[in-house]
Amino acid sequence: MSIDEDIKLACETLKNGGIILYPTDTVWGIGCDATQSDAVKRIFEIKRRADNKALIVMLGNERHLDRYVDDVPEIAYELSELSDRPLTIIYDKGLNLAPELLGEDGSVGIRVSHEEFSSRLCNTYRRPIVSTSANISGTPTPITFNEITDEIKSQMDYIVSHRRNDKTKHKPSSVIKLSGNGTIKIIRN
């Protein structure tokens, strides 16, 4: 299957409120349309994750940040572009997203992907996509497709074909909190 056909099928699934399993710029992720509450709730159920633990949102381009963040500090664009590895930034106040994705204080974690597949997926879909590791909460994060359990795979509406045989050992993203006043706090290095 071509990458274009894979992206087309994934986008159709997302548009219909479905859940996908897809390769990201870090590890394989479980995703859905980040604006659809029912789909986001379903991911919490699949992962058996407490709903007070927010999920990450993925975008394909820094230019889309202002659609989903109330006040994007200028330094966020530079950090995202200059980071030598995937970077998730937690912003003070999220906008236009399913409320389940926001922290209790209204904050939201967003990562802009520069990896070919996930970036193209986000840009083609033209909406933010949830990106959370493909495991039950509290269990080890699978690094390759073959490490993902059948329990997780069986609950997906679409499983992307691209990169299934990739054995590259990707790591989770770095995570920082960036406040409106420019304060940066490292959460995960």
Label the overall shape.
Answer: globular
Radius of gyration: 15 Å
How much β-strand is present in the residues? 15-25%
Number of strands: 9
Strands of the largest sheet, in order across it?
7-1-2-6-3-5-4-8-9
Largest sheet: 9 strands, mixed
Order of helices and strands: HEEHEHHEEHEHEEE
Residue share in helices? Answer: 25-40%
- Overall mean pLDDT: 91
Low-confidence stretches: none
Given helix and strand content, the structural type is alpha/beta
Tell me the number of helical segments per DSSP (H or I, 4 or more residues long).
6
Distance between the termini: 36 Å
What does this structure look like?
This protein has 189 residues and is of the alpha/beta class. It has six helices and nine strands; from the N terminus they run αββαβααββαβαβββ. Strands 7-1-2-6-3-5-4-8-9 form a nine-stranded mixed sheet. A hairpin with a 5-residue loop joins strand 8 and strand 9 (184-188). The protein is globular, with a radius of gyration of 15 Å. The model has no long low-confidence stretch (mean pLDDT 91).
List the helices and strands and how they pair.
Elements: H1 3-15, E1 20-23, E2 28-31, H2 37-47, E3 56-59, H3 65-68, H4 74-82, E4 87-91, E5 108-112, H5 116-125, E6 129-133, H6 150-153, E7 158-159, E8 174-178, E9 184-188
Parallel strand pairs: 1-7, 3-5, 4-8
Antiparallel strand pairs: 1-2, 2-6, 3-6, 4-5, 8-9
Helix pairs in contact: 1-5
